[in-house]
Structure prediction request, 416 residues.
Amino acid sequence: MSQFANYTPGAYAKEHIRITPTTLADGRDFFYLDDDPEYVSGAKTRELNDPRELAYRFSNQLNAAGEEVPYAAPEMRRDPLTGDWIPMATARMNRPITAGPGATATGNPLAARKPGDPYQDGEVPDTDYNVVVFENRFPSMVKVPGRSEAVEYIDGNPLWERKLAAGRCEVICFDPNETGLPADLPVTRLRTVVEAWAFRTAEISKMDGIEQIFPFENHGQEIGVSLAHPHGQVYCYPFIAPKMETELKHTEAYFEKTGGNLLKDIMNAEIEAGERIVMRNHSWIAYVPAAARWPLEVHVAPVRDVLTLDELDDQERWDLAQMYSTLLKRGNAFFDKGDGLGMDLPYIAAWHQAPIHDARREHYRLNLQFFSFRRAANKIKYLAGSESGMAAWISDTTPELIAQRFHELGAIDIAD
Prediction:
């Protein structure tokens, strides 16, 4: 029986992945996911004690005047013009930034512990790891014990609702290699990352107040990544995020009109058309959507009807790890700088999965939306007036040209 309340490992994970929970010094949840056979078997064990002397995460804090004040919990305010909730987390201004021209700190909080190193504020207690997951030290959203989550009104005006941003934010470190690229990880390690997505989706979906679980990966300095270490995140919203809300409105309207599943019919239409399919294996289809916004955009969908990552079976998880690895490698080769070596592509990989409680979830379908705003080896697609001001997208290419470039990089059918 699984030691976790809601996550049940499949046959592969039972034999080849060991999940070990612990608690960091300030009270945050932390999990090792090991695929090294010595740790899976129990012959070796991970360090569970965080040696840092950290105050409890929700302790009172000192303000600029040196006065003790309650923990500055993230709040969110509703935009009355759009209905969107906007989380606001001032503590994130203090998070360490170690990558890019705006770097403000040395050291790497996502690295394994280095005994004797001057920097000893890392989040991982052990001197090595395979994959780890932990609650973000500087969260955009967090549930604070004992704090009311009731709606209040700014200036007493009902136009402006606000309440605590009582969600959850987690970090997933894909590998201990600080300078490595996700594209270079072995498929077996990416299989462990897939298991981490499924594990956290299963466990968090039963937590009180969470409405949507969003695993994602930001990669590359141009994207704005503050830590270069290969990692992703899981945002757990106490609301339905605006993009998901738009998709749910359209999938529900499509079901009411046709009785069909819009995401499944889109996938099948792309398969029938054929031209924009860029990869496929036994369990997954990858295609450039017919109305792609980004200069490089690929959607990845399971062949079987699946709502969330934790519903994937063993074969689907393996096939996903293999397809994700191939997608990252071909993404890095997409733009040619003239030397035939490609580049480290800046990208966002965004998992869209069915919301937890919304009744419209049954007419949704799991999908990955992978995109980059790089439009040439030396050019970036900037979101200027039309995109940022009106959310009216202007594409600099066509989906067919994007797909054609992927076809030049390798076979559509990749090994199962």
Observations:
- The chain has two domains: 11-239, 243-409.
